[in-house]
């Protein structure tokens, strides 16, 4: 038996505007001389953090009728999933782990899906369990007994333990879907989980425990439930009381979108959400704040769940969370079930199924594919798993056009790129430049697209350019040729004294090498709109390929010393509305100030 277990209302990220992480990047064309080439710059020397060992996670559930299917386990392993959450959303606050049962009327526990069954799956694929203990109808002693059984009796070594599911949804702020028999309010939760932490860590001091927080700028963030004795909002109350004992905090992120284009921008809200949560931890959790991790133990696309854009969103959101120092992201969920059947713009069927694998169910006369058939979101996770293995070092990748996003990681054998084309109809040629890394060749290239809805190998890809199909994800693995090209550590750019006329303009530019080393044999790149062409330049020689302009030294100015400034200028003709460059890069490093 399978049921769609939960609502999607609370913690919905219907947030207004937020800044995107400066990681969006672009892709490259296979030697194409297209006028709309997107420039991607990879700076392998700019470290954005290490991929955690529990990054690529998925929710599993005790109510899942296909949890133990061998095909499902193989699919998880094939996607590189390294974390599994159990026993399943709101079910957790009604679940008795000793008997594998739920409170009457509050969900279903498949007799084959007990804790030991789940652990068999987790161990088979090498995934770390993330266990949600029963806060709503359980006790601290019951949770401690679970820790003791898992890690002392069975030696499973389960490290991550959540203290309840979405407890603010117990009616504290009005809406109620979470089962909770304890007193309502943030103060009651904060006081009660203090006992949970003490008893659970007495059973195994090595475990990590996490508390539920509300999502920044989403209901009920910032509300104070004074009727239940609270004097501050949920996050402030919990962090002040339990911050010294917590190892991580829990957020659930369900974006709300009205269109595919809207969905594909939702990853841009992630940076501000994580930054705001980190600021709260720093402000209220005391001396332990720096040690508290952030985990996103539930998320999904929330719109057209079984569409290709959902796959693209999956890749963007997971990588944006990781580059913002989130330790774990768990997709909702492995199997879910059909609801709200619709026809997608590409003519395929959206079953309203938030699972990454089909449950094989029917809604009215419409039935899903056979159980365990991957939906597109599965391939988004698989792309992340193929691209960002635990221990890889995330590095900076920037783009000249937000239609394409780019992410890069350094590995022991070279460098991996993940490229996402958001354009629904247009193939995007991309050109890729590298700083701090010298690519030898592409050792593996995989692609998922609207036209071919599987992540599979593609031939003939070069390290410096390819064309990305519409609505696609591409994963490239590159070998290192040895010594990396010289790269400026950093630079700033200013422009001014421009003159424009009908059909063209001049631009005067000053780039300062703010790094500690001289930039010799320098190269400056910038992008122009497709309708503009460079007609002249001074203090540099220029070439233009598509909309990508490259400037190189003249005989008398081959080195930019540390702290020195390179002045140059150019004239451009335009056949449309004049638009000056919005970015400049020195030796592949994007400059600040423009």
UniProtKB/TrEMBL annotation:
<dbReference type="InterPro" id="IPR012291">
    <property type="entry name" value="CBM2_carb-bd_dom_sf"/>
</dbReference>
<dbReference type="InterPro" id="IPR006311">
    <property type="entry name" value="TAT_signal"/>
</dbReference>
<keyword id="KW-0119">Carbohydrate metabolism</keyword>
<feature type="signal peptide">
    <location>
        <begin position="1"/>
        <end position="34"/>
    </location>
</feature>
<protein>
    <submittedName>
        <fullName>Cellulose binding domain-containing protein</fullName>
    </submittedName>
</protein>
<feature type="domain" description="CBM2">
    <location>
        <begin position="484"/>
        <end position="594"/>
    </location>
</feature>
<keyword id="KW-0732">Signal</keyword>
<dbReference type="InterPro" id="IPR017853">
    <property type="entry name" value="GH"/>
</dbReference>
<keyword id="KW-0624">Polysaccharide degradation</keyword>
<dbReference type="InterPro" id="IPR001919">
    <property type="entry name" value="CBD2"/>
</dbReference>
<dbReference type="InterPro" id="IPR008965">
    <property type="entry name" value="CBM2/CBM3_carb-bd_dom_sf"/>
</dbReference>
<dbReference type="Pfam" id="PF00553">
    <property type="entry name" value="CBM_2"/>
</dbReference>
<dbReference type="InterPro" id="IPR013780">
    <property type="entry name" value="Glyco_hydro_b"/>
</dbReference>
């Amino acid at each position: 038996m399978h049921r769609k277990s939960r609502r999607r209302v609370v913690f919905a990220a219907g947030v207004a505007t937020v800044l995107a992480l400066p990681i969006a990047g672009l892709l490259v064309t296979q030697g194409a001389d297209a006028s709309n080439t997107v420039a991607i710059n990879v700076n392998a020397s700019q470290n954005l953090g290490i991929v955690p060992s529990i990054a690529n996670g998925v929710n599993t559930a005790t109510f899942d009728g296909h949890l133990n299917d061998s095909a499902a386990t193989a699919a998880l392993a094939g996607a590189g999933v390294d974390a599994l959450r159990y026993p399943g959303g709101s079910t957790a606050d009604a679940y008795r782990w000793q008997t594998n049962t739920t409170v009457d009327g509050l969900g279903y526990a498949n007799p084959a899906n007990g804790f030991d069954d789940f652990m068999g799956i987790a161990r088979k694929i090498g995934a770390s369990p993330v266990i949600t203990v029963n806060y709503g109808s359980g006790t601290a002693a019951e949770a401690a007994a679970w820790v003791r059984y898992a890690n002392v009796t069975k030696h499973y070594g389960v490290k991550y333990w959540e203290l309840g599911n979405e407890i603010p949804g117990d009616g504290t702020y009005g809406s109620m879907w979470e089962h909770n028999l304890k007193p309502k309010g943030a103060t009651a939760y904060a006081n009660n989980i203090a006992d949970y932490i003490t008893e659970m860590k007495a059973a195994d001091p090595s475990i990590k425990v996490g508390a539920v927080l509300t999502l920044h700028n989403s209901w009920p963030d910032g509300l104070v439930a004074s009727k239940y004795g609270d004097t501050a909002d949920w996050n402030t109350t919990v962090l002040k009381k339990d911050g010294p004992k917590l190892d991580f905090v829990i957020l659930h992120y369900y974006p709300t979108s009205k269109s595919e284009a809207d969905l594909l921008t939702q990853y841009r809200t992630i940076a501000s959400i994580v930054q705001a949560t980190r600021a709260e931890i720093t402000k209220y959790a005391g001396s332990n704040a720096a040690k508290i991790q952030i985990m996103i133990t539930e998320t999904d696309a929330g719109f057209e769940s079984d569409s290709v854009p959902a796959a693209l969103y999956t890749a963007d959101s997971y990588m944006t969370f990781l580059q913002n120092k989130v330790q774990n992201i768990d997709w909702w969920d492995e199997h879910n079930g059909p609801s709200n059947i619709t026809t997608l713009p590409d003519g395929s069927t959206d079953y309203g199924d938030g699972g990454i694998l089909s449950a094989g169910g029917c809604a009215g006369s419409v039935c899903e594919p056979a159980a365990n058939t991957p939906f597109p979101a599965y391939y988004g996770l698989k792309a992340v798993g193929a691209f960002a293995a635990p221990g890889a070092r995330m590095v900076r990748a920037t783009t000249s056009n937000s239609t394409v996003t780019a992410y890069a990681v350094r590995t022991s054998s070279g460098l991996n790129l993940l490229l996402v084309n958001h354009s629904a109809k247009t193939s995007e040629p991309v050109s890729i430049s590298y700083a701090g890394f010298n690519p030898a060749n592409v050792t593996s290239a995989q692609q998922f697209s609207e036209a071919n809805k599987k992540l599979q190998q593609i031939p003939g890809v070069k390290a410096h350019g390819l064309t990305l199909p519409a609505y696609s994800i591409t994963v490239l693995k590159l070998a290192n040729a040895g010594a990396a090209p010289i790269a400026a550590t950093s630079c700033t750019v200013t422009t001014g004294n421009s003159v424009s006329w009908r059909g063209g303009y001049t631009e005067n530019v000053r780039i300062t090498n703010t790094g500690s080393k001289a930039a010799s044999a320098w190269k400056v790149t910038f992008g122009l709109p497709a309708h503009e062409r460079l007609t002249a330049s001074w203090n540099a020689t220029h070439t233009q390929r598509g909309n990508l302009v490259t400037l190189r030294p003249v005989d008398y100015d081959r080195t930019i010393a540390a702290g020195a400034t390179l002045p140059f200028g150019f004239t451009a003709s335009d056949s449309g509305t004049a638009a000056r460059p919005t970015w400049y890069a020195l030796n592949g490093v994007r400059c600040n100030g423009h």
